[in-house]
Write a structure and sequence with these properties.
heterodimer, A: alpha/beta, TIM Barrel, nine-stranded mixed β-sheet, eight-stranded mixed β-sheet, 13 helices, disordered N terminus, B: 478 residues, alpha/beta, Urease, subunit C, domain 1, 2 domains, 12 helices, 29% helix, disordered C terminus
Chain lengths: 453, 478
């Protein structure tokens, strides 16, 4: 395994002095992606905690899956595995908050895709149910420094189309583990709502042509959908009251309404996927009236409604910055410049791939935003801390602080820069292999002997 | 008419005309104090490039500006050769696929070039100066292709790269066998639906092409011998371009994924005596790098796309590096108007995946695609005598933080970021005025003698389904 090949870990001896000296690797090479959950000390690195200024020559101690200590003068506990990271940099692991990870293996092969259920209203389906821990995407993605993600049903990305209106519950999980139970951070972190759009033109795949509908007809469909969402929420409120006040024997259990109860109680955020300014405005107004906790997802025209988003304190998970402008006559760098514009307006932002196979481009999306004006520190937070805050996971994730989950990456430079490599990867406090399908194929075919002439 | 696009084009044209660089002596330009990434002879710190009549006249550290020369000061900036995108579908009016027959060699992309496609401007703003405009991949043998320069603002006739070899698109695997496409009810499936049939389709076509060529050769020979009353063979516009392929007058750019289908086409090409110029995508090229090198074909691939379809499941981001190390001439292409705006970044990924040197990474989007398209005597590096097609960045173009500042084609500034920014308020204003006018025109029963303005059609460009791989076709939006 890769760990044994590249990671030189010195198991600290009983003598603390020896602990800091890198001895020959003493960990046997187990056929697992992760080592056991022991105590580790990463030393000699520049530590970017994102909770304060970077620490030169810092040490991070990891114990029982959590960060135990971080600082310039931290003692390395006896028995700790020491990772000599001199000349390297330590960052919190990156977080891709909207993906179809584990739900979409090969997008064009229907049998391998479990993203979008039939029907418009499926609040009771949960991504975690079908995340395949053996998906090749998981190891490929973590090799780029992404340690945890959210899989969101009904969302679409580069190579997949989303669907449904209330499409199900999104799940947060670590990108390592034998089973979903081991990987799971939180089973339900948000309810996905694909905000209905007023589109008079749509592309019809069956006839391969653009279909036009009169505005009146489209508006009618739209209003109907909004009424339906409203109705679902009303029924969920009544259901909650019945559950609270009535005897369970007196009403039939309804799984869909049950799933919506945390939403109407404001405990579970709604992840509203919307792009157009008009749709965002409508969604913000709706969520305000309904007292829902809204996170905007996508938001390609969020810049048009930044005052509203600021006023209502709506955080935004931005789609890829590498995407064309929405309209032909928009400035060519609209998508790349928007993060800076939203940040300047005081709106919390996070980057996301909205994808599976492109999840590893997350850092590139953030880097591009820096090129167009977003402060570098903020871009780093927008791939680590910010999304954790939006989903109420910041007590566990997002910075390198004692008590938090030890999802940590050790790199040879700026993690937003393209050529930077992730040298060590800790997920839930375990040293995790950066091996993956791609490197395996590379190593395999690199060894192919020259064919006979 | 797509009003907004038209206006934008007008605005930028106006800007080009009022460009001070052109008002002065536009024939002689000096770019000075830049870090010059020549690609062929290393990097030059604080160097200058002298441009005369659209060509690079001098490169070095002690090049002085001749009298009257326009000087572009690039202190702290980086100049690299304009990016060459070996697989593009921009500037095409309408669909890029003639999806009827599986041999559509009669379809001609050069006939449907659209100089107003905003993607020309956007890709230019992303560092691209030359693009290989291909037919789609729905057919075993697709349509005829054309290499263009991104001369935004010029008419269609001025886009083609003069002297570049014409090409033809071939396609293997899932796309020509239409595995991702379900015909509408009542419409039968199209032959072929297997890789077996794709090979058969190509062999059949070249068998016919050879016969056809023989008929013409025969006719030409007899005519030359002075034989009277000859009737020429009937012209076949489907077979003409295939004859050109057999005669080495037209390049074959073959869309492919799997190693087996790549070897298949190499066998077919050998059987019929033609050459494949480039394999496009070639995501499993790393599995047969030695065979590709031995065949002397180019490989034009993606940086890190994978798993969007079955034949892309073994794709690896080390593909470019591994093939390069085995002696294949490799380029990184876009197949997508947006992806083309950051090919410099995509090339940089080969440094991370497999450890290509920075110069070899740069070659993936400059010299190597130029070699693949047979235009490396003209473009692809910063050398004296080559076309002055240059990209000026504010940082090292292999960094994610690099932003294009200026773009030159044939020594003329076709993009200037500062000018683009300066133009924005005026364009916004103009757009708003149009919208207001539209609104006013829509108001009923206005007692005005003014004719109501024609309602501008505001449509989002539909996707180009199956242009490439993804099959993502966005719906239009209003």
């Amino acid at each position: 395994m890769r760990i044994a090949r590249v990671v030189e870990i010195a198991r600290a001896s009983i003598m603390p002095l020896v602990a800091s000296v890198a001895l020959a690797a003493s960990i046997a090479a187990p056929l697992v992606a992760q080592t056991s959950s022991d105590t580790y000390a990463i030393k000699g690195a520049k530590v970017h905690t994102l909770a304060g200024p970077p620490i030169e020559n810092g040490t991070v101690v990891i114990r029982d899956g959590k960060i135990a200590a971080v600082g310039a003068n931290v003692d390395i506990p006896a028995g700790a595995h020491v990772v000599d990271a001199t000349g390297l940099e330590v960052y919190p692991g990156m977080f891709d908050p909207i993906t179809q990870m584990g739900l979409d293996e090969v997008n064009a092969v229907r049998a391998t895709v479990d993203v979008t259920e039939l029907g418009d209203y499926n609040p009771d389906v949960v991504a975690a149910t079908a995340v395949n821990p053996a998906s090749a995407h998981i190891a490929v993605t973590r090799a780029s420094g992404i340690t945890h993600v959210i899989a969101a049903p009904g969302t679409g990305g580069f190579d997949s189309a989303g669907g449904g209106v209330i499409s199900g519950q999104a799940s947060a999980f670590n990108l390592a583990g034998w089973t979903m139970d081991e990987m799971q951070i939180k089973r339900s972190v948000a309810m996905v709502v694909n905000w209905p759009t007023l589109e008079t033109r749509s592309f019809d795949f069956s006839t391969f042509s653009i279909q036009e509908k009169p505005y009146a007809e489209v508006k009618k469909d739209y209003d109907k959908k909004i009424d339906e969402i409203s109705d679902w929420l009303d029924r969920a409120r009544h259901y909650a009251q019945a559950e609270e006040k009535g005897s369970p024997a007196n009403f039939e259990r309804d799984l869909k309404l049950e799933a919506l109860v945390p939403v109407v109680e404001g405990k579970l955020p709604v992840l509203v996927v919307a792009g157009k300014a008009r749709d965002i405005r409508a969604a913000v107004e709706f969520c305000g009236k309904q007292n829902l906790k809204m996170i905007l997802a996508g938001g390609s025209e969020a810049w048009r409604v930044k005052d509203l988003l600021k006023e209502k304190k709506i955080p935004v998970i931005l789609g890829p910055t590498l995407r064309p402008p929405e309209e032909e006559d928009m400035r060519y760098d609209q998508a790349m410049a928007q993060p800076s514009e939203l940040f300047s307006a005081g709106i919390p932002i996070a980057f996301s791939s909205f994808d599976v196979s492109f999840s590893r481009r997350l850092s590139q999306y953030a880097g591009v935003a820096v090129a167009y004006g977003l402060p570098h520190d903020e871009a780093l937070k927008a791939v680590t801390l910010n999304a954790a805050q939006m989903f109420g996971l910041a007590d566990q994730l997002g910075t390198i602080e004692p008590g938090k989950l030890a999802n940590v990456i050790v790199t040879n430079g700026d993690p937003l820069e393209i050529k930077t490599e992730v040298r060590y990867l800790f997920i839930k406090g375990r040293l995790t292999s950066t091996d993956n399908r791609h490197r395996d194929l590379y190593e395999e075919y690199k060894k192919r002997p020259e064919p006979p002439k | 008419m797509k009003t907004s696009r038209f206006l934008l084009a007008l605005g930028l044209l106006a800007a080009l005309v009022s460009n001070p660089a052109r008002a002065q002596n536009s024939n002689v330009i000096l770019i000075q104090n830049a870090t010059i990434l020549t690609v062929t002879h290393g990097n030059i710190e604080r160097g200058s490039i002298l441009i005369r009549d659209g060509k690079i006249a001098d490169v070095g550290t002690d090049v002085k500006a001749p009298e009257g020369a326009t000087v572009i000061d690039a202190t702290g900036q980086f100049v690299m050769p304009g990016i060459i995108d070996c697989h593009s579908h921009i500037a095409v009016d309408g669909s890029v696929n003639e999806g009827g027959p599986s041999v559509s060699s009669m379809a001609r992309i050069p006939d449907v070039l659209n100089p107003d496609d905003i993607d020309i401007y956007r890709d230019l703003a992303g560092g691209v100066t030359t693009a290989n405009i291909l037919h789609g991949s729905a057919n075993s043998i697709g349509g005829q292709t054309v290499v263009i320069k991104l001369r935004w603002g010029k008419p269609a006739a001025d886009l083609p790269f003069q002297g570049a070899m014409p090409g033809i698109k071939f396609a293997l695997g899932e796309n020509p066998k239409r595995s991702g496409f379900t015909p509408p009810p009542g419409v039968p499936q199209r032959y072929p639906v297997t890789r077996l049939g794709v090979e058969e389709t190509i062999r059949q076509a070249f068998t016919e092409a050879r016969e056809y060529k023989k008929e013409w050769d025969d006719y030409d020979r007899r005519k030359a011998a002075g034989e009277p009353n000859l009737i020429p063979p009937r012209r076949n516009v489907t077979l003409d371009p295939l004859v050109e392929v057999l005669e080495g007058k037209r390049y074959v750019h073959a869309h492919c994924y799997r190693a087996d289908e790549i070897l298949m086409l190499l066998r077919v090409a050998k059987e019929f005596g033609f050459k494949v110029r480039t394999f496009q995508h070639v995501l499993e090229g790393y599995k047969i790098a030695d065979e590709l090198a031995a065949a002397g074909v180019g490989a034009s691939t993606f940086s890190d796309w994978w798993a969007y379809k079955m034949e892309a499941y073994d794709a690896i981001p080390y593909n470019a590096t591994l093939m390069t190390e085995r002696g294949v001439v490799v380029s990184i292409n876009s197949d997508d108007a947006e992806e083309a705006t950051h090919l410099n970044q995509e090339a940089a990924k080969s440094m991370k995946y497999g450890g290509l040197s920075s110069n070899d990474a740069l070659k993936l989007v400059t010299l190597n695609p130029a070699i693949q398209l047979g235009i490396d005597n003209r473009v692809g590096s910063i050398d004296v005598g080559k076309d002055a097609d240059l990209a000026i960045y504010n940082h090292d173009p292999l960094s994610v933080y690099a932003v294009v500042q200026k773009m030159l084609i044939d020594g003329q500034v076709y993009f200037d970021r500062q000018r683009d920014i300066a133009l924005r308020p005026a364009l916004e204003k103009e757009k708003q005025e149009l919208l207001d006018k539209e609104k006013k025109a829509a108001e009923p029963e206005k007692k005005s003698e003014e004719k109501p303005a024609a309602k501008p059609e505001r449509k989002k460009k539909p996707g180009k389904p199956d242009a490439g791989e993804t099959g993502t076709a966005e719906g239009g939006a209003l």
